[in-house]
Amino acid sequence: MDSRQLLVTTIALLAAAPAAAQTPGAAEAVPPAPAATPSPTATSNAPAATPLDAVTATGTRTPGVSGDGAAPVSVIRREEILERDSRSVSELIRDVPGVEISGVPRTTAMQPMIRGLGDDRIVFRIDGARNNFNAGHRGRIFVDPELLRQVDVLRGPGSTLYGSGAIGGVISMRTIEPDDLIRPGSELPVGGFLRGGYQSQGGMWRGTAAAAARAGDFAALGAISGFNNAYVTDGAGNTIPYTGDQVANGLARLQWRPGFHAFDLAAQMFRDSHVIPIAANTATTTSVTDRVTEQQVYTLRWNYNDPGMPLLQPQVVAYRNHVQLDERRQTGTRARDTTELTTTGIDAQNTSRFQLFGWDRHTLTLGTEIYRDEQEGTQNDRPRGQFPSANQDVMAFFVQDQIAIGDLTLVAALRYDSFDQSADGNTNDRSVDRFSPRVSAAYQVLPWLEPYVAYAEAFRAPSLTELYVSGQHFPGNSFVPNPNLQPETSHNIEAGVNLRFSDVLRDGDRLRIRVTAFRNEIDNFIEQLVFARTTESRNVRTARIEGIEAELQYDAGSWFGAVSASALKGDNLTDDQPLASVPANRMTLSGGYRFLDDGVTVGARWLLVAAQDRNPTNIPGLAEETSGYGLLDLYASWRPNFAPNLRFDIGVDNVFDHAYRRSTWNSNPPPPFYEVGRNIRGAVTLTF
């Protein structure tokens, strides 16, 4: 059996296993958590699966290998989450090609950008629940990576499957489950881990505790995590103000798997207490507030997967996601602000597998998504126009057919979204709708060669704040609502190639390569314009972002290496100016060696970023050029033979304490500080 046949067989087995039934759009792979890691004595010289071999459903809503097909999905698995020991999801995914972090290094304020697009132009999902919160420089992702089992990053338009906002892409996060903690074949159906660590930056202490148990068809999990750090410093020795955090994160999960059914009830709660500027993702040190950031996510999932019923494989997730920020301003008016968004929804789909003519194989997915956003902002218990009390109701239907004809795979998909938007005390109610098509073709020319092409359209409906905002922006300047905003729409075409090799340099090794080129044209781009006395959002321009992305991963068992790279170019076609949001060209080189007999892994990452001098000249306050930089990170882990339930991790980030800034927050005049400097970290994990 060749490597391609083996991969296809593996996918089929995973798709048929009831335990692998997942939330629509969630990752299908089950990467090992600390408790599930084999002891070093059991480790062979066989190479591990590369991240491009990970099974995911984010790109197509049906299980597939992330390095196959025409949907470029990058996967961060549990092992890498532990090794990176990141404070935020944004830091965790920073080396994915086409991804850049936007904002000053304050934990909750940083946001990822995909292919030069961020904010509401990326769809975030956690355990299948939409995460729609976005409120003026305050951040969007509130989860401790310690409680995640996998993060998938879909690069490029995804509105066909995920609706409004997926112009740049989709980030799907999945929290840990009982199967990640309970050892297979264990005499006692219980398991868990304790993990503690320290980082020199900010004197950060962190800890995680998780436990799971199974009784018959039932399983339960409980986990808590958190960290506490003071202000961090940059590579020049300057203190980066207002970077302290007191984070606590909890997770509870109950599963019931009778027969071919799988029920999963989960609750995730996050809290960060911090003193931070209101415009937290900028370099400002004024308008400081004592903030408590909280998020509660509740999900109920149901799957049915009977291998004998290929036409009936339903998946349903009902959810409620509530985000609330309570702020007490420490300067100026010393007002008390609250900012709340609650998203309640249901996402349902059914996948049918069948043949029509005998020589074709269909994977037909039909689904619907219904959700409601309710937001409210107050100041001193009165309505706050800067975050207006408003709501929107969304109903969507989608269909996708994956057709396999020999070595050719065709995908055709279409989604319809309908929006109803309104605000308290405002007569300008709106109703908009949009169709989002996608087509792609991938052909397995040779066992190791699969080229593909794809075309997709995506859209972003104007946010409630853009439509109905009012009140003071800053002294002498006021927000003006614009209920006539039109949705942003994008048209993306891309082509790429997937390469898979085995036995390249030694028997049993694996080499995976993916290269993608794309062009995304965006009409009715919404931009916030600041005039002398007013600030207003308008559809002002047509934009184009194009580029090339590449991923290479090699694993030979004892040693491994990877390369990820992207080169992007963005232009404002209306004003004939470069786009300000597009990051510089970048490349990450990584590799390491496994001392298999001793359970030791050592590795290094070298991030190389070019200078960014393509900035618009008609926007004040932007830096004319952001210098290029190189960062070296070193890390090591040890699972001792004499204590296989122990794991030790150490690392040094930014080894040479380099002072640098990302172009996404550099300004003119330049800020008084740089990015985070050298960070020495270590962690110990005990599994049971």
Automatic annotation (TrEMBL):
Gene3D superfamilies linked: TonB-dependent receptor, beta-barrel domain, TonB-dependent receptor, plug domain
Signal peptide range in chain numbering: 1-21
Keyword Transmembrane in record: yes
TonB-dependent receptor-like beta-barrel domain span: 281-655
GO biological process, one term: siderophore transmembrane transport
GO cellular component: cell outer membrane
Membrane topology, from the record: Multi-pass membrane protein
Compositionally skewed regions (Low complexity) per UniProt: 21-30, 38-48
Residue numbers spanned by region Disordered: 21-48
An example Gene Ontology molecular-function term: heme transmembrane transporter activity
Subcellular location: Cell outer membrane
InterPro entries documented for this protein: Beta-barrel_TonB, Beta-barrel_TonB_sf, Plug_dom, Plug_dom_sf, TonB-dep_rcpt-like, TonB_haem/Hb_rcpt, TonB_Hb/transfer/lactofer_rcpt
Record's keyword terms, sorted: Cell outer membrane, Membrane, Receptor, Signal, TonB box, Transmembrane, Transmembrane beta strand, Transport
Pfam families, alphabetized: Plug, TonB_dep_Rec_b-barrel
Domain of life: Bacteria
Family the UniProt entry places it in: Belongs to the TonB-dependent receptor family.
NCBIfam families tied to this protein: TonB-hemin, TonB-hemlactrns
Name of this protein: TonB-dependent hemoglobin/transferrin/lactoferrin family receptor
